[in-house]
Design brief:
Length: 235
């Protein structure tokens, strides 16, 4: 299978991402057969550590595709990183501003252009004490319904054991297993053609995150909470 050509900046990023990925754990990338060899797809992922994007990127790249992330716009102001983000076609997210809808339009356009787009619907690293997905924002649902492409649930597990941001703990040793797994595309046929209103967006968001949670149950081998954690909830 021919690799998607991401250009110079993708190769530049790979020089750094691969050593970081292999250096932070024993990787186990599963379910890559669900990523289409060509054409657009939306990857809807949980978020437990700032290491997740490194491993999501490698997961997609080792499937011979180039990932486009929706990420907070402040990253574009970081020297060198900003150039890499622009050069690899990443998508800045402007929250709570007049440009807030721009990222969703750019994401929809990327999907229609046959790109792989990655979104973390929780919007930040989960605050759930057990590392389960939180109540999510509806941007992923809007992207999923605005583009007729496969929508894949994706989970990470093991990255938080290496780097736990909230507890300021980085423990690369002893080496841990880091799992990234994609599941089969979510069937959204019941929602196609319906008006995209707040109720539909909430319903589809919860469906997508339920599929993500179910996939994480498989990876972890333990039951998940019945309800999604909400920010501000008691621990």
């Amino acid at each position: 299978m021919t690799r998607e050509n991401g250009g110079f900046w993708e190769k530049f990023a790979a020089v750094f991402f691969y050593p970081i990925g292999w250096g932070t754990g024993r990787v186990r990338y599963e379910g890559r057969e669900h990523i289409p060899a060509q054409g657009g797809a939306l990857l809807v992922a949980n978020h437990i550590s700032y290491l997740d994007p490194v491993h999501t990127a490698l997961y997609v790249h080792t499937a011979r595709r180039t990932p486009r992330f929706l990420a907070k716009h402040s990253l574009w102001s970081i020297p060198v990183l900003g150039k890499v983000l622009v050069g690899t076609g990443q998508i800045p997210v402007y929250r709570q501003s007049a440009d807030a809808g721009q990222s969703l339009r750019a994401g929809t356009e990327a999907l229609r252009d046959g790109k792989i787009v990655v979104i973390y619907p929780e919007g930040t690293i989960t605050r759930d004490p057990g590392g389960w997905p939180m109540h999510a924002r509806t941007g992923a649902a809007r992207l999923a319904l605005s583009s007729d492409v496969p929508v894949l649930p994706v989970v990470h597990w093991g990255t938080r054991e290496v780097y736990d941001h909230y507890n300021k703990r980085f423990r690369p040793l002893p080496r841990r297993t880091i799992t990234v797994r994609a599941g089969a595309p979510v069937d959204l046929s019941a929602y196609r053609g319906r008006p995209i209103d707040a109720g539909v967006l909430r319903e589809v968001t919860d469906l997508l995150m339920t599929r993500v949670r179910d996939l994480l149950v498989e990876v972890r081998g333990e039951p998940a909470p019945a309800e999604f954690y909400r920010r501000g909830s008691a621990s």
